Structure formats: C-alpha cells, structure tokens
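In response to reviewer comment 3 from the previous cycle, which asked for concrete evidence that the modeling workflow produces usable outputs, we include below a single protein chain processed end to end. The sequence was submitted unchanged, and the resulting structure tokens are shown without manual editing.
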Amino acid sequence: MARRWIARLSIGLIAAVALTGCSDKQEASESLPSASSSAAPSEEELAPLGPEDMPMPDEARTQDAAGAEAFVRYYVGLINRTSTVMDAQPLREFSDGCRECDRMAKVVEDNAAAGHRFVGGEVAITHLAPIVVEAATAEFDMRGDLAAGSAVDASGAEIADLGSAAYSGLAGGAAVRWNPIRDMWVMTAFTLE
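The workflow returned the following structure tokens.
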C-alpha cells in the first residue's frame, strides 16, 4: 500500500536578541590568570552513539536544522549499513514510533536469523530540504534513488522474491524529534516510494 508524504509549510518566528553592555567605564585588569588555572571546556563532550564502525557524527547531534539534516543523512547511512552488516539495532535505537523504521529493522532481523545477507539495495538521497523546522521537531521533503538489491543465503545463492530492481526519483520524507535526555534526534517517520 503506497503512502503519500504530505508536506506542510510553516513560517517560523525569528526572535531578536537584545544585547546590553555596561555603561560605566572600568579599568582593565593588569594581571593574567596563572598557568596553574585551567579553563573548563565550553561544552561537555558528547557520549558516543551508534555502532562502533559507524558512530553518529557530532554534527548530527545539534538541535537545529543542520543537525536534523545531518541526522537524517546518518540514519540513511545506517539503513545502507545493513547491506554489509545485518544489524538492525541502530535502526531501532535511533527511531521512536517510526513504523517504516521498525519494518526495515524487522526485515533485517528476520533475514539475519535465517542466515541471509543483503547485496546492494543502498539508498542515495538526491534531495533533502526542510519544510518544517521547530525547536524540537523537523520534517523533510526528500527524493532518492534505490540501487538494485537482493538477499542471498549462506551459500551465496540469491533468494527468490527478496530482490528489488533499481529505482530513481523516489519521493518521500522524514520527520525527526529532538531527545533532550540523550542530546540527539530520533526518527519518527520515514518514507521513500
């Protein structure tokens, strides 16, 4: 059953930040901090996330439009990773309520349990543009290509009915939500058809 991505457009509000300074004249300090004092880092280092062979990049962990886009691209990379590593755990870990993500994860898990592996079938994003970006959510209009792919058994024999032809110009979208506890985005919807 085909699902159609419905794009919503919204106009965000831009808030102006007023900067205030001191009006009183102050003398400059003539002393410098001692060498023994150490400056604290301006930001805490983020705990690593993702599989060891494909950790989530820091740019995908910022709560802004660029971070949301980097996360969507990272997630698609995780989908493609299943062509070589039959590991669906990251697909589940970085999604929340995303039915298509859960479906893809189940396909990977079922095939891995049967001793199958995938060959090809990678997704290439050709267009990804935000259509709605708010503080804690973002939605993207997306276009992509799907490479031909198949599943093979332990002997390397192709499994009938588990292959796919190549497709180009597929339309879809993605929606993500910020998880403030883990300082990361999670996928809430993903379509490409």
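The domain at 58-192 is CATH 3.10.450 (Nuclear Transport Factor 2; Chain: A,). We consider this sufficient to address the reviewer's concern, and the full set will be provided in the supplementary archive.
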